[in-house]
């Protein structure tokens, strides 16, 4: 059940909202939490019923581990923490990486003439397992360190219903953001407080506003770019090549598809949470405006970067143990980010490339004070141009289903292979024929660049929203366009559902 589907918008969401607020109105606060948690499980199980059992097993196991860690002393707690982290990583590894490891093991065995040829089990990959695994690991670490859990530290007790809701809250269950206990539980307690009003209409209005923006981004922008990106990648993955214009349009189409797809999801998740009076942390902040790779990662998937910084980079020593160790830590964090996204050599290469970029930028910052040049428009443009094109090129490995496709697309982009251009190469329908491009494609690129580089992001707009007839008309227009587009648009899942 996608956020951008009719069944979600006209069935699941209204029923969940009505049920939750009826229970709250009659002061059945515990029942309201249970109802919301069960609705979230239904939402998750709607994709595949089997997912519920995996999520439930993980949740119950982590609940008991966290409860024991909270009550134990430092030494015993540390053993339980190691057990908990190991359990979560094994669970993630089994479901996400088994086929990848076995496939490469079989390949290696052939190289040394053993040829084990172990059958690939093709284990079901539960949606969102990468997200809720990291969220639970963070919670276990916080319980051990007694940080970010002030109320739990005093009580030495974790409420099971609260924990289930913290883990399964449907707006952030499938693709984040990766939230902390301290961000969510105080809000749930405050929300279900008899002294508060039944409905916060301001949050409702802001939620509808940002939801409409995300809905429009996903259906009208991202899914249109998906058509050209998918067509181009299919050609190169099948072993053929594109002309240079088609190749660049293919790579840029995916670059913008991913941007508006993930940005749209983040907006819709924040909007849905606001419908229930809950504020989720920002997870996306105009990353294509970044002037360097470090700035990009501070803007893209913010809560993943926060997790890796707090629970990997800093424990490894951060920047406190000298320059060499600092560079090592940066490389490890960026590499882990790549592998976290998926099981394939494309993700490994993508992670390594970003790791090398992070290391290069840090070395640059060691010896050159870039701030002296920041007032220069030429410097800013060059910095943005290099950063954006690096990101665009590395997304190719992120998207391509095989390395052959990625290499073929790069060869096409940089003219290493020559594909004859049509006679009227200056006309979009002719030059982009293989990927189904036309004049509309050029228009979408112009709009996408303007939206990414000129406009304020949706979080800023929502925070400063003036609730009046203009904002109401704008919201209604976006929803109308998205809903009508959805009638004939192909079914396209959010990209981050695959991670």
TrEMBL record:
| Localization (cell) | Cell membrane
Q: Which residues span the membrane?
A: 6-23, 28-46, 52-70, 77-98, 118-139, 160-178, 198-216, 330-358, 378-398, 405-421, 441-459, 471-491
Q: Name one GO biological process term.
A: alginic acid biosynthetic process
Major subcellular site? membrane
Which keywords label this protein? Answer: Acyltransferase, Cell membrane, Membrane, Transferase, Transmembrane, Transmembrane helix
How is the protein disposed in the membrane?
Multi-pass membrane protein
Q: What is this protein called?
A: MBOAT family protein
Organism for this UniProt entry? Campylobacter aviculae
């Amino acid at each position: 059940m996608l956020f951008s589907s009719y069944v979600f918008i006209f069935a699941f969401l209204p029923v969940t909202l009505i049920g939750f607020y009826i229970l709250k109105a009659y002061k059945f606060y515990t029942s309201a939490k249970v109802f919301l948690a069960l609705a979230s499980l239904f939402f998750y199980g709607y994709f595949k019923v089997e997912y519920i059992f995996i999520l439930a097993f993980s949740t119950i196991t982590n609940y008991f581990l966290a409860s024991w860690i909270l009550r134990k002393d430092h030494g015993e707690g540390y053993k339980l923490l190691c057990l908990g982290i190991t359990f979560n990583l094994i669970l993630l590894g089994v479901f996400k990486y088994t086929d990848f490891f076995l496939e490469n093991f079989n390949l290696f065995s052939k190289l040394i003439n053993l040829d084990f040829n172990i059958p690939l089990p093709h284990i079901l990959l539960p949606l969102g397992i990468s997200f809720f695994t990291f969220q639970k690991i963070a919670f276990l670490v916080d319980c051990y360190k007694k940080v970010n859990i002030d109320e739990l530290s005093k009580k030495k007790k974790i409420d099971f219903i609260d924990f289930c809701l913290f883990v399964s809250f449907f707006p952030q269950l499938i693709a984040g953001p990766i939230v902390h206990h301290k961000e969510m539980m105080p809000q749930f307690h405050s929300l279900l407080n008899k002294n508060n009003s039944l409905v916060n209409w301001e949050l409702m209005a802001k939620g509808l506003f940002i939801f409409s923006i995300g809905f429009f981004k996903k259906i009208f922008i991202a899914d249109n770019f998906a058509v050209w990106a998918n067509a181009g990648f299919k050609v190169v993955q099948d072993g053929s090549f594109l002309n240079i214009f088609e190749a660049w349009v293919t790579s840029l189409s995916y670059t913008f598809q991913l941007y508006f797809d993930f940005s749209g999801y983040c907006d819709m998740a924040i909007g849905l949470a606001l419908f229930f009076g809950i504020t989720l942390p920002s997870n996306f902040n105009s990353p294509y405006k970044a002037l360097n790779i470090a700035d990009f990662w501070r803007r893209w998937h913010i809560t993943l970067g926060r997790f890796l910084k707090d629970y990997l980079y800093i424990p490894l020593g951060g920047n406190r143990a000298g320059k060499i160790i600092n560079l090592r830590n940066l490389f490890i964090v960026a590499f882990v980010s790549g592998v976290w996204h998926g099981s394939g050599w494309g993700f490994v290469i993508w992670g390594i490339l970003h790791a090398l970029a992070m290391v290069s930028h840090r070395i640059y910052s060691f010896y050159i004070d870039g701030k002296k040049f920041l007032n220069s428009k030429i410097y800013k443009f060059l910095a943005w141009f290099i950063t954006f094109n690096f990101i665009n090129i590395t997304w190719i490995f992120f998207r391509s289903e095989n390395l052959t496709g990625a290499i073929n697309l790069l060869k096409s982009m940089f003219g290493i292979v020559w594909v004859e251009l049509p006679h009227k190469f200056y006309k979009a329908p002719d030059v982009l024929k293989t990927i189904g491009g036309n004049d509309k494609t050029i228009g979408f690129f112009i709009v996408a660049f303007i939206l990414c580089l000129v406009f304020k992001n949706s979080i800023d707009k929502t925070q400063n929203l003036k609730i009046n007839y203009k904002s109401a008309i704008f919201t209604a227009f976006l929803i109308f366009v998205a809903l009508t587009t959805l009638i004939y648009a192909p079914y396209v899942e959010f990209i981050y559902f695959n991670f």
